[in-house]
Amino acid sequence: MDSPSTTITSVHPDIIQTHILTRLDGPTLAAAGAASSQLHALATVDKLWRDICTSTWPSLNDPTLQALVSAFPGGHRSFFSDSYPLLTHPLDQYHGQSRKIPPTTSSPTSELISAVDIHYKNSLIFSKVEVTETVTGWFQCSPFRVDLLDPKDTVPTPVQYSVAGDYKWLSHLEDTLTLNWILIDPTRKRAANLSSLRPVSVKRHWLTGEVQVRYATVVGGDRTVGSEVVQCGIVVTCAGKEGGEMQVREVNLQVEDMEGRHLNGKESLVILQEALENGRRKIAKGEEGKARYERYLEMMGERRERRLRREKTLDMVCIALGVTIFLSFWSYFLFR
Fold first, then answer.
1. Nearest to 147, CA basis, from 17, 232, 249
2. Contact residues for 223 (Cβ-Cβ < 8 A; gap 6+)
């Protein structure tokens, strides 16, 4: 005689919540919550999502951030759905035509909060929360830049610095050094990860010898900027001596258009708030972020070539016009 089948409803909710759901990562927990109404009720408990968020991004252990994230419409679950998938943008959608971002009707934010975590082989080596005010004239008019370290500060790491075997060591950093830069709008209760998670390039500066690790996310631009897409570029600068420990000397974020111009605070704020509220999000896979960045560089090159062709054509027209005017005057005075 067959034994009766066991369903999830026959398992005590405390066992499910304490011994099963606590072992799941964020995407799996979200999928489990969609399986049934009972699992949905158990999987949306904020403590589960708070533990997942703080283990994924240790910077969220900051008490101020804890209170802020708890005030999100869906608490930590809402924050996770905003921040775990990376921002993505259809690079070839506009074909050279920039869009116009509609003005927002909600109150503008007076500050942006950055929650940044850097891991080496899944071990945390740097974590910081930085608040950037957005209302002063200095912020509005100056190039937008968020620096997490003072010029004299350095952060020690367990990474052994190497100069010999340069290419192999730089490739090692590209494979093992991950970064999350979550930008939070405390007014609208929205967040987004501006990082590509894995580096898009790792290069040694030819003059200083410092290693610059770049992470980048491409988001939609604005007609007022004149660029269909812009790059949120994050650079981690590292230095050290051969065989000694690698030190992090600089971590910064800037927004750059396709002409290579760093946008100011006012321009960047409009674009970043649009990305936080309406930007597409997608769980990153492997080298996808690097491939998108390389496509962005190709688009920059294509844009530069178009500009050079236009300038060359304009130069030819100006030369032809000048020659025509000269010949007209010469003929006039010759045959008077």
1. 249
2. 98, 99, 100, 101
Between the CA of residue 333 and those of 93, 268, 330, 336, what are the distances in Å?
56, 58, 5, 5
Let me know: does 219 contact 156? Beta carbons within 8 Å.
Answer: no
pLDDT 10s digits, 172-182: 999 999 999 99
Return the pLDDT at 199.
Answer: 95
> How does DSSP assign 208-236, residue by residue?
T--EEEEEEEEEEEETTTTEEEEEEEEEE
* CB environment 64-89: b (16+ within 10 A), e (fewer): ebeebbeebeebbbbbbbbbbbbbbb
Q: What angle do CA 98, 217, 115 make, to 5 degrees?
A: 125
**This prediction's pTM:** 0.85
Q: Cβ–Cβ contacts within 10 Å for residue 194, how many?
A: 28
**CA 320 to chain centroid:** 47
- DSSP three-state, residue 185: strand
3-state secondary structure 238-262: EECCCCCEEEEEEEEEEEECCCCCE
Cβ(197)–Cβ(293) below 8 Å: no
Query: Residue 239's closest CA among 253, 254, 250, 226?
Result: 250
